[in-house]
Design a protein that fits this description.
single chain; 648 residues; GMP Synthetase, Chain A, domain 3; seven-stranded mixed beta sheet; five-stranded parallel beta sheet; 20 helices; globular; disordered N terminus
Length: 648
């Protein structure tokens, strides 16, 4: 990968942690961070043994790390239970009657589960799983709305040693079938339906359709009554959650599980079209979640912490369920869309529940900007003390809006880079120590030996783009692709010898900060120049008229690839030919002539998944004049795609 033309972009705004925040923070200075990071790299056994001592172990490990590239085993010989570490350890303490989960449904229902109440529900449902044939090592599909019972089901699986595979509630019947067949699941936990923008998502029907098409291994389907919609119950296979809970007691001791016992399989899209079942195990993954919540979110007993991700993504696993609950924190959960019934739902919730830590995606932030500041300013957000971003690089102007309007200029922002495969944060600021710059995830977390290399695996100079790799094992790393060790080696360990590489490009600035430029696949090759789409998008969004932008390439006989920009303007702005030309000149001025867009298309909205990610694959097809093909079941609004195609 040659030098990235976008590396000339320099961010000079620096925000140091406030003295008040640093005074209380667990990592309170860069000197402390550097000392701990160096120890974690030079003496990982000592560092991680000390962190692991915070957890409850039924049997202590005999060896911290067994590393035979590319396969790692952490805390070899140890036995523990994730459910015990998230629940039982807090009983008999001041946290016993503290809120573990505060929940609001999209229609407006409210529930609070204390640690004691959550423990009781999990123990009972663990007994329901056993009653319905789930044993240690069995795979269980969870296909649920964003309700507390989704977390209950996950923790119950962990309690008995069943391996859960959560399927995002926006996925289709085909997606469910594929996952059931790949992991050999024997049981499904679902709901009749869930709410999304005032409509009911027919979850049980999707499961029925999946089982008609395949998934013959499924013996039982446990159905939670959420939306009250009419569903089919297959006698002998389908049972109601609430009825099953009546048959069991609330005592279920946590099963002692080996450190490397599989905790979950989570599927992520693969380049071959076949989803990859990312396998995470017990001890190392939990320690990654626990330590990142402790140091990155600096979670406290008094916090009300809200991660807006869906439970079907790894962010929901690590930072709604396992990380916060192992810390004894209060996690807030919301079922529905951020703009239902109006565009201020998130801000109303923060105001009402006095949320203190807020963790969301850059795509959501850009949508908030487009909807207008007036939706924010009508609410009191003074309870917030820390903000975070996750899912993709955040452009500097969105970072500044988030900092000023949501954080009131006082809240540190932790811009976190990590992946489904890494289990938890890998590159991130420490809020009481790291001076932040808009748009950069800053520096590696403990135990993370990150580097940027060229195609030959050699480190590149400052401000030169390359491949982001991790050179040492870390506790939360995936252990394999389920059932396919050869694919695991080929996908993650063959591109750069001896290093983990999962497809992201980056550069480092003069302070050593990492700037993630997006997927290597999303780097355009324009007349021999490599241009990162993420930074092109950042430039467009920095223009005062632009709310959101997505940049893709289309084949070009002369240049190899032409630059096509899809742009959504802010409320009150008009999309017109003069603005199109102004934006072309603006990009040319900021980056250089080679980055001048060939085509700028204005759009009312961009095609996004329900989790807020822009579906660039579809935009590439639209830009190239192709018929849109492939799975669009996760698309939030199919009408957006139709409009883009018609405007072509």
């Amino acid at each position: 990968m040659s030098q990235n033309i976008s590396s000339v972009l320099v961010e000079n705004r620096v925000f140091k942690p406030s003295k008040d925040f640093a005074k209380r923070a667990r990592i309170s200075s860069m000197e402390q961070y550097r000392k701990m990071w160096k120890e974690s790299i030079a003496k990982p056994d000592r560092f991680w043994a000390r962190e692991a001592a915070d957890l409850v172990w039924q049997k202590k490990w005999t060896k911290v790390l067994d590393w035979k590239l590319p396969f790692a085993k952490w805390f070899v010989g140890g036995k523990l239970n994730v459910s015990e570490n998230c629940l039982d350890r807090h009983l008999g303490t001041a946290r016993q009657n503290k809120a573990a989960i505060i929940w609001e449904g999209e229609p407006g229902e409210k529930r609070v589960l204390t640690y004691q109440q959550l423990h009781r529900e999990v123990c009972k449902f663990a007994n329901v799983l056993k009653r319905n044939g789930a044993k240690k090592g069995d795979r269980v599909i969870i296909y649920m709305p964003m309700i507390p019972e989704a977390a209950v089901a996950m923790l119950a699986c962990a309690r008995v040693g069943a391996v859960h595979s959560v399927v995002f509630g926006g996925f289709s019947a085909d997606s469910i079938k594929d996952r059931i067949e790949d992991c050999g699941a024997s049981l499904v936990v679902t709901a009749d339906g869930g709410y999304r923008r005032g409509s009911i998502v027919p979850l049980k029907k999707n499961v029925d359709d999946a089982l008609k098409a395949g998934g013959k291994n499924i013996k039982k389907v446990i159905v939670f009554k959420r939306a009250g919609n009419d569903i089919h119950i297959e006698e002998g296979r389908d049972v109601w959650w609430h009825r099953e809970m009546e048959y069991v007691d609330a005592k279920c001791p946590p099963t002692a599980l080996d450190s490397e016992h599989p905790l979950f399989i989570l599927y992520t899209s693969g380049s071959t079209g076949k989803p990859k079942g990312i396998l995470h195990t017990t001890a190392g993954y939990l320690i990654q979640c626990y330590t990142t919540c402790k140091y990155v979110f600096d979670l406290r007993d008094e916090d009300v912490y809200w991660c807006t991700a869906d439970i079907g993504w790894v962010t929901g696993h690590s930072y709604i369920v396992y990380g916060p609950l192992s810390m004894g924190a209060t996690a807030f959960m919301y079922e529905g869309a951020p703009n239902w019934p109006e565009n201020d739902r998130f801000w109303r919730l923060i105001d009402e529940y006095k949320v203190t830590v807020f963790y969301t995606a850059p795509t959501a932030i850009r949508a908030f900007i487009r909807w207008g500041d007036e939706w924010v300013t009508k609410h009191d957000l003074s309870s917030l003390r820390l903000l975070g971003t996750v899912g993709e690089p955040i452009n500097p102007e969105a970072w500044m809006w988030y900092h000023k309007l949501i954080g009131g200029g006082r809240c540190p922002i932790v811009d976190t880079w990590w992946q489904t495969e890494t289990g938890g944060h890998m590159i991130t600021p420490f809020p009481g120590a790291t001076p932040t710059k808009p748009g950069t995830a800053t520096l590696p977390f403990f135990g993370v030996d990150a580097a940027i290399v060229d195609d030959d695996g050699k480190e590149v100079p400052m401000n030169v783009g390359g491949k982001l790799v991790i050179r040492k094992p870390w506790p939360g790393m995936l252990r394999s692709i389920y059932g396919d060790k050869a694919r695991y080696k080929q996908t993650y360990w063959s591109e750069v010898k001896g290093s983990y590489f999962a497809g992201d490009g980056a550069r480092r600035d003069k302070d050593g900060y990492f700037w993630i430029v997006g997927r290597i696949d999303d780097v355009l090759n324009v007349a021999g120049h490599r241009i990162g789409t993420a930074e092109l998008e950042s430039v467009l969004v920095s223009h005062p008229a632009v709310a959101e932008a997505a940049v893709v390439g289309r084949p070009d006989e002369l240049k190899g690839q032409a630059i096509v920009c899809f742009v959504t303007v802010k409320n009150g702005q008009q999309a017109h030919p003069e603005l199109r030309e102004e934006l072309r000149k603006y990009v040319r001025h900021v980056i250089g002539p080679v980055a001048t867009p060939d085509d700028i298309r204005f759009a009312e909205a961009l095609p996004k998944t329900r989790s807020g990610k822009i579906m660039r694959r579809l935009l590439k097809q639209v830009a190239s004049g192709q018929v849109v093909t492939g799975d669009t079941t996760t698309l939030e609004d199919l009408g957006v795609l139709a409009k883009l195609a018609n405007d072509d």
